[in-house]
Amino acid sequence: MHTKFLLFAAVALVVSVPALAQAPEGTVPDRRHDQQQRIANGVQSGQLTAGETKRLESREANVNREIHADRTANGGRLTAQERQQVNRQQNNLSRSIYADKHNAAQDHYGNNEIGQRRAEQQQRIANGIRNGSMTAGEAARAENHQQNINRQIGADRAANGGRLTPQERRQINQRQNNASRQIYREKHNGAHSRP
After folding, report:
1. Alpha carbon distance 177, 118 (integer Å)
2. What is the distance between the alpha carbons of residues 82 and 146, in angstroms, rounded to a whole number?
3. Cβ count near 187 (within 10 Å)
4. What is the distance between the alpha carbons of residues 158 and 152, in angstroms, rounded to a whole number?
5. CB 3.0-4.6 Å disulfide test: which of 31, 38, 40, 175 passes with 129?
6. CA pair distance 91, 96, nearest whole angstrom
7. For the ranges 10-19, 76-85, 130-139, 183-192, which has the lowest average pLDDT?
8. pLDDT tens-digit profile of 165-179?
9. How is residue 189 annotated by DSSP?
10. CA 122 to each of CA 84, 165, 179: distance values in angstroms, whole numbers, following the listed order
11. Phi, psi of 147 (to 5 degrees)
């Protein structure tokens, strides 16, 4: 019985060594997907503001460009050193996602028309991130647009005692229409979020 166990362990080791040697290469896309899921969840829940999401997506886009350039230079593969560097960058990004999702800044704009419209846009961006139809760069641009709209809402409300005038509501609605068209174009342009 002891001999069978040793034989089984030896076979398992021989079979698993090649799989372990390939594991770091396979973890890069998996890790990236996990980060995008966490960002999408933060957008959807309101834990990530538009500004936080834009910064995170910009960093993710930079890592993706680096991965693409490294793979292009190395015949489609990453060297062990490049994988380690990407892993460090993903660890840093992971810590930033956690910190941003658990800080006091949250995006809540109420159940009025403006808040619902904003929530719908955020949901569409989150879905684009989640299903890969938006690249990290596209999501960052869409979040930048949302951040600018949010600033306008804040400034308008501050100037009017916390309320928006009918004209300001129309302007914000027009800007949300433009943002909506941008999100649609970026989700349907054929670019995918796979590095």
Report:
1. 11
2. 34
3. 19
4. 10
5. 40
6. 9
7. 10-19
8. 999 989 999 999 999
9. S
10. 33, 24, 11
11. -60, -40
Token digits of residue 47: 């834990």
Residue type present at position 30: D
**Distance (Å, whole) CA 60 – CA 15:** 34
Residue 137: other Cβ atoms inside 10 A: 18
Name the nearest CA neighbour of 122 among 39, 193, 55. Answer: 39
* pLDDT higher than 90, residue 107: no
Residue 12 CB-density burial (10 A; 0-12 exposed, 13-18 middle, 19+ buried): exposed
Calpha distance 149→147 (Å, rounded): 5
User: Which range is least confidently modeled, 57-71, 104-118, 157-171?
Assistant: 104-118
Per-residue DSSP letter, 102: T
- Nearest Cα neighbor of 106 from 95, 115, 114, 93 is 115
pTM here is: 0.62
- In the chain, the largest separation of any two C-alpha atoms, in whole Å, equals 83
Cα–Cα distance measured from residue 119 to residue 106, given in angstroms and rounded to the nearest whole number: 13
Q: Which candidate, 144, 152, 158, 188, places its Cα nearest to that of 173? A: 152
Token pair for 157: 């409300």
Q: Measuring CA to CA, which residue among 16, 14, 30, 100 is closest to residue 67?
A: 30
